[in-house]
Amino acid sequence: MNKNNLSFSTWISNNIKNINDNLEKILQNHQDAKLSVLQEAMKYSTLSDGKRIRALLVHASFLAAHGCLMEKDDVLLSIDKAAIAIELIHSYSLIHDDLPVMDNDCMRRGKPSNHIVFGEAIAILAGDSLQSLAFELITCIPISYEIRINLIKNLAESAGYLGMAGGQAIDLTNMGNNISYEELKNMHSMKTGAIIACSIKFGYILAGANQVVKCILDEFAYHLGIIFQIVDDILDVTSDDKQLGKTAGKDSKYNKPTYVSMFGVMKSRKMLEKLRDKAINIIKPLGLSNNRLLEMLDLIIYRNY
Amino acid sequence: MNKNNLSFSTWISNNIKNINDNLEKILQNHQDAKLSVLQEAMKYSTLSDGKRIRALLVHASFLAAHGCLMEKDDVLLSIDKAAIAIELIHSYSLIHDDLPVMDNDCMRRGKPSNHIVFGEAIAILAGDSLQSLAFELITCIPISYEIRINLIKNLAESAGYLGMAGGQAIDLTNMGNNISYEELKNMHSMKTGAIIACSIKFGYILAGANQVVKCILDEFAYHLGIIFQIVDDILDVTSDDKQLGKTAGKDSKYNKPTYVSMFGVMKSRKMLEKLRDKAINIIKPLGLSNNRLLEMLDLIIYRNY
């Protein structure tokens, strides 16, 4: 049976198992008694029960860009490592975002946040180390040096001040402020969208996609980033701590501008539907049947945590 | 006049000006009003009055490895960018180390620490962004992709949990504990030594050094790292805040194991002399006359801040 013909749920669970195994392997490297606390902190957050959406997007984008897997082990290894690098960056960002001086959340992925368990100093260092490890990991991907540099450049830009970290800074500055819809979209395209877009880029870079496919997938990724954030904002008001695995209702508590605070839940849901149609239209030229990215789109929209 | 025949002090001041100009240029890129606070925070610490020892070591190591500059602009550009990447990592580490939950220092380089001016959240994000920027910068070095990957791999390893960040974690865990001399040396070889060793590696990688030269310079770098730390420990007890540009006497206040707490100032100075002789012997095969690394060794030993 062709792996691509697997049901979506089997594809997801196979991939999540693979992603978790690979994360565990990379974080078990160089175990050192002196470093046990730091290494435990890095593992605690990274190996916890994450949705692995970003890593899955790398795989899905690779397939949507008609990347050919077949028996090429090196390609498969490359996708695995690239996907894990993204998860390491995501894990670092969650640890730092949860700190008391940032979003101050004491729960994450259904467990006490990193700094609650290991203290703030080790939490900061665990985040710092996960960021370094992500870049180190990409240097070892069994693919041309040029492609490795391309991946690192994209990830560094997406994680840095013009991407994720910059978005988080704007988010903190915006607390309690009235901002425009454009400002809200821009902030989220950096804070959440940049790494999601990078995941899609990773997939098509590894697939060796042509310029047209890249443009289609970049456009799709931009919309997917907005969709992801709107769902996040809706879940923050419609879900509870247990379902989310983190503190619900935090956006309004901190008076954060969100899609829900700006448009309400009903209108945000309507926006979601429109954006879903748009995203599907964008990706249509790549084929809609058996398209893992399309399935990922619905997974992101209809998730409940 | 051959640039290598410049007096050491002229070489230093020319290079520091060049390093500062390049840091300014890279941090002025993509100025964005929305990001002004974060960008100011990144500039505030990085463009402050640093000694630039790590960046200078990249240049000095390149020359000691008989790297040839001549008119090859790209080589010069490559050294500049590589040296600046190291300074960005160093700057990020200082910002995070100074945080209240870490070493809690409210002064750095003669000015209030980053978190005192910008708040802890922005300070953390500025450090995070500087780390990403360092790797992004190396991806743009005008040298082969293979060498860029080699630089990134070395920097990521040196900055991460088996290097600088790991050393800082061990340092925090050690506070108030009795540790052995071996443990002290190991901790410092990670916390301070790893990035110093990486600076030397950057120089010889860019010079295309052979295996023998690499071994000599690695061995020299290991000793230089220890020397750097002993001087730091001595200055902490013999200098004042104004001279150091940061809070003096902090090691004993926090009951940190240091060379001075273990051996006292006099014996630490004697160790320094012996290590200096050893370092000179190690590097002798590369030639002692007009050797910038040797001059850097004495600059590091005889500095007063």
TrEMBL record, chains A, B:
GO terms for biological process, alphabetical: terpenoid biosynthetic process
Pfam families: polyprenyl_synt
InterPro entries: Isoprenoid_synthase_dom_sf (IPR008949), Polyprenyl_synt (IPR000092), Polyprenyl_synt_CS (IPR033749), Prenyl_diphosphate_synthase (IPR053378)
Family stated for the protein in its record: Belongs to the FPP/GGPP synthase family.
Magnesium as UniProt keyword: yes
Keyword field contains Metal-binding: yes
The entry's keywords: Isoprene biosynthesis, Magnesium, Metal-binding, Transferase
Entry EC number(s): 2.5.1.1
Ranges in a coiled coil: none
CDD domains xref list: Trans_IPPS_HT
Listed cofactors: Mg(2+)
Name this polypeptide is given: Farnesyl diphosphate synthase
Organism from which the protein derives: Candidatus Kinetoplastidibacterium galati TCC219
Source organism, top-level taxon: Bacteria
One cellular component term from this protein's GO annotations in UniProt: cytoplasm
Gene Ontology MF: a single term: metal ion binding
